[in-house]
Amino acid sequence: MQIRKSFTFEAAHVLPHHPGKCARLHGHSYRLDVALEGPLQATGPAAGMVEDFEVVSRVVKAAVINELDHRSLNELLDNPTAENLIVWIWERLEHELPHLAELTLWETRKACVVIRKGDPLTHAGKASESPTNRQELPLP
Ligand SMILES: [Zn+2]
Fold first, then answer.
1. The CATH number of the domain where 78 resides is what?
2. Could you report the per-residue pLDDT of 11-21, keeping only the tens digit for each?
3. Separation in Å, CA 119 to CA 34, 49, 59, 75, 122
């Protein structure tokens, strides 16, 4: 069974490679839909649930919403497209929410990006901070 919970945050960004108006500083009211999939828990405080909605809320707010809300996304990502942002979000949630199945990030009311468990994650961090882009120099 799948459960979903929606979150909203406001953030600014600049898309440095965009040939049009998105290269100028602007903001969006983003919506993030978080989907968890799994069997109903048999015992404990979440018995009869895939996961307690309050647990989902607490985790997503602490790991993602508090970090992104009223932020310039270019502080986190060199090229904060919706696609790069959703990878950043996925990486922050996958270990906290073991049943995480799908994320949908709405940049506007009409445009969204979807990522599902098992999708390849292209590294989206700042080039200067990304471990995959760091060169290991041989010692002399
Ligand atoms: Zn934009």
1. 3.30.479.10
2. 999 999 999 99
3. 15, 26, 22, 25, 9
